Amino acid sequence: MKRKSFLTAAIATAVMMTTLVPAAFAETGTPSVAPAAQKSVDAQTAASNALQAQAAKYGFKSDLSDLQYVSTVNTLGGTVVRYQQTVNGAELFTHQVTVTLDNAGQALLIASDYVPNLTAQPVSKKIGENAAEQKALAALNATDAPSAMNSRVFGYIFENGQAVPAYKVVTHSGESEVESFVHAENGKVLKKRDLHQHVNGTGKVFNPNPVRTQGNATGLTDNNNKDSTALTNQLKSVTLQGLDGSGYLKGQYVNITSKVNTYSSTNTFNYTRSSGSFEDVMAYYHIDTVQRYIQSLGFLNINNRAISVKPNGTTQDNSWYSPSTKDLTFGTGGVDDAEDAGIIAHEYGHSIQDNQVPGFGATEEGGAMGEGFGDFMGATYEDALVPNTAFKALIGEWDATSYSSSTPPTLRRLDTSKKYPTNMDGEVHDDGEIWSHGEYDMAQAFGRDVATKIILQSHFSLTPNSGFKDGVAAIKAADQALYGGSHLSQITSIWAARGL
Question: Which of helix, strand or coil describes residue 227?
Answer without folding.
Answer: coil
